[in-house]
Predict the structure.
Amino acid sequence: MVSKKLALLGLTAVTTLVLGACGADNKDTASSSSSSSTEMSTAASSTADVVSTASVSDDPAVLETALSADGNWIVAATKDVTFTNDITVAGEFHDKGDDSSDIYRKLALYSQDADRNVTAEYTITVPTLTVESENFNIVHGTVKGDIVVKANGFVLDGSKVEGNVTFEKQEYQDSATLDKDGASVTGEVTVSE
């Protein structure tokens, strides 16, 4: 009888340690492509934070660099941002920054809580956003301005574009998804070729 109680007590202790270790590792665990790998705070930040290779900021200059070829696979705005010049999303990046993963790039225009529920959405205002990165995904929020797509796999996921979306080639439009999770474009969607 005593050995059964000790065995049960030992099993309970081991289970608690395993579950505690799994729960403590949540911030480092890779999440799905449609979810951010970092918890985004609703508090505005005017400096760049790097968390799990993500650029999280409300500074237009920091976000512009993060979206460039020298940037990161995931970029997140922490409040509404206005760019006075055109922005180009360039470079080849992989999901979660892992070169063995699929080519993927994400612009997160939202904050979320610990349970990954969207708590706020943000707007970026830009004259023209040119997308040269393959599989670029704009998640939630709003882009006020025109988007020119020069790569395959462009995705709007729960986001809205208040402007036109122009694809450089029919192939790019054919590979795009503009209506995932209620996404929309208020302007025209065209192919320039």
